[in-house]
Structure formats: C-alpha cells, structure tokens
Protein: Alpha/beta hydrolase-fold protein
Organism: Pseudoalteromonas fenneropenaei
Amino acid sequence: MQLRYLLPMRLLLSTGLCVLTAVAWANNTAEAIKLRQDVFQSTISLADLKVVHHDFIRATHFNELFALLSQGPHFATNNSLPRFIKQSYKSKQNVRFRYSIRLPHDYQPSKTYPLLVFLHGGIDRPAWQNSQQWWIDLPNEFADQAIILYPSAWRDKPWWHFAQLENIRELLKLVKQSYAVDTNKIYLSGISDGGSGSYYLASHLADQFAAVGPFIGSPTVLAAPRNQMQGNVFELNLANLPWLIINGEQDKLYPAEQVGKFIDYLQQFGDGFEFAAVPGGHSLHTVRENWQQMAEFLKSQQRPPLSQDVKLQVESNSLYNRHSWLIVNFSGATHLANIPNGLKRDSAPSVIVYAKQTDNHVTLQASQATEVILLLSPSLFDFTKPITVTENGKTLFSKQLEPSKATLLKWAKSDLDPNRLYAAELEIQLSGNSIQ
C-alpha cells in the first residue's frame, strides 16, 4: 500500500504524534480502509457516510483522520480490469455524454498514475453514437504511462458550453473514484477544436490541472460571436497554469503567426506560456510529429497541492467560483475600465480576488468582490497559533481556529483529492476595492 501524503511537519510537532503510529493505525483496521473507500470511491452521500462511520469518526483524533485521508482511496487488486472502455452517462439535463478511458498496460491499483484529458477536434457534427470513434490513438510516449480520458463534444455541446464544464467535472470525479489517479498530475490537451476548448476549460477549471498543452487550436475561436461561447475566458485564470501551445507554420485555419501574437499578449499576465510554431498544417500529422515534445513537457509538470499565491477572476454566471483554497462570492459588480474583461467583450461583469498566504497570514486584494471563503489546510497553516487575514493593511480576522473533522470530511468527499485536505472554512467580508 502506497502512502501518498504524510502529516504536515508543523502538525506533527505541535501535537507530538508519531507519523509511524498514525500510519500503522490507519493501515491496519478494516474500518479505516472502508472509510477511505466511502470518502473517495463510493457514491454514498456525506450525510450517510457520517451515519455509517459515526462511532469511528467520533473516536478518532483529527490528526489521525487527516493522516488516514491523506492516503487517498484504497483500490483492491483487479487484474481483469479492461485496458480500454467506452461508456456514457446522462447528465442532470438529460444529455447523453459519451467517453472512453484507456489505462496503462501495466496498470496496478497500488500505484498512482497521471491522468491526461484529451479533447478531440471536428465538433461541427451531430452527437456521437456508441459505434463511432471520437478519440485518437496517441503515440506511445507518455500515453502508455498515464490514464487517458477522452470526452466527447459535438455541434450542440461544444467544448466552450457550460454543459461541457459540468461534463468534464463529472468525468474527472468518475475517473478519480474508479482508478488510482495522482491528483497532482492531471493534464489537459486537445487537437483543433479540442485545442481551442482547452483554453475555455483551463480558464474555468484551472485548479484541476497541472498543465495544458493544446495542438493546432486558437483562442480566437472562443472570441468569435458565431461560436456562442457561454461565459468567458479570463487571461488571469489562464496564467495560473503552465502551457505549451503548439501550432503549425503551414496551418491556414489557425496560422501560427496569429496564435503567437495572442500568446505574446498573454505574457503580460504570467510567464508560464510557451509557444512553439512547428512545421506542418492543420492535421493530425502535426500532433503525431510533435507528441514527444508535448509528452516531455507534461511529464515535467506537477500541480502544487496548495499554492501560496492564488488569483481568480469570475463572472456573475460562472459555474465554478473557486481556485484551490479560495472561493469567491459574487455580488452585483459592474464593468470597470481597469479590469481585463476576457475574450468575450460583451460578457457579464466580473470580480477579481488575489489571496497570498505567508505562514499564518493571508493577504487579500479584491475588485468588486465583497465576500470570500478561505479553506484552511494544516499543510499551510499552524492551527496551534492565530490565523490572521488582512485587506489593504486592515485586519479582518485574527483568531486561533480548531481543526474540524466535519470540514475535513466535507471537502475530502467533495473534491476527491487526498492532496488537498482542509480543516476549517473561514468566511471573510471585503471592501471589494483594494486592487489598484
């Protein structure tokens, strides 16, 4: 059994617990294993989970529970798992989404694996049928070492619609519940329309991915009114991730020179954008010829479980108002001249929040946001000392907090991410105008 995440050193020192004792305890009880399975793998509700495991949770010290959940799911050995599946499900809006999953040839549930989400192109078509193939077979480099998820999109459900945001979130949840995923190594890539859709999904779901690598796509697709993008794509959110963008020099649909100019523009928001203009046109050949470069880039990236510096821009109709440990509540903003309005100039108003953590201190800056929720992890904060939150030099909160088992279980069950566990929720009221 692989231990994913040891107790934070500051927590160990403050409590005097021995990590070996905690881990040995966690590994050697059937009840502990069942709790891990119900938190990370089962569809059981949080309320029912608390009932089923009530006595165990009550009798367990917070630090032991944290150590237990830090190990993530517990998958039984199953050598008969198919290495490729095609499946579908119906969304809450009664839309059937098809997907396929490819496992590494040597997949073992006792290990964890990177997950690559790859978006296909050619979406100007009717909905896919189960007898059809919407995925492409990637070259062996990296592909044989990762779990690959191939979602599907079509004319009525393009990658840049809210329904696809919900689809990708649902599929990520499904894969994490079913397979041994390293949640710090989830990558997003795609070809053509899928490359363009990568910009959209990365803007809304940046904290889910470690890196993004679009092929022969263009963010101008999202900006074009005829493509009817729902919501917006904000440059600030794209800058939360490292990128390798590959476009063909002979591509007449999305000329590399045109895409390169946009990437130059994005550089003002962050230095994580790498652009490569390569020989080739708008074809699968360009992907195959340059997959090795992309694979090496993706393998070199790992998501920081809990970043100390978080930036987020969201709009009033956003479905996902969170980045890592920062949740932004919207409250009636209007467009401001000094706020970048994203790729869609006629979009809904947006708010911006910057959050920076240093030791037990959080510094906030906001434009038009009046409330945030901070999710506090023992991996970043010392719960034996007061935690302070300030905005523009004004102290908004300063108090010692008690780690909460209820909060730990709530977000572990919601996020299915053993690398991000939280011990407290803190609601903070802001002035809303501290970004100059």
Summary: The longest strand covers residues 181-191. The mean pLDDT is 88. Residues 162-178 form the longest helix (17 residues).
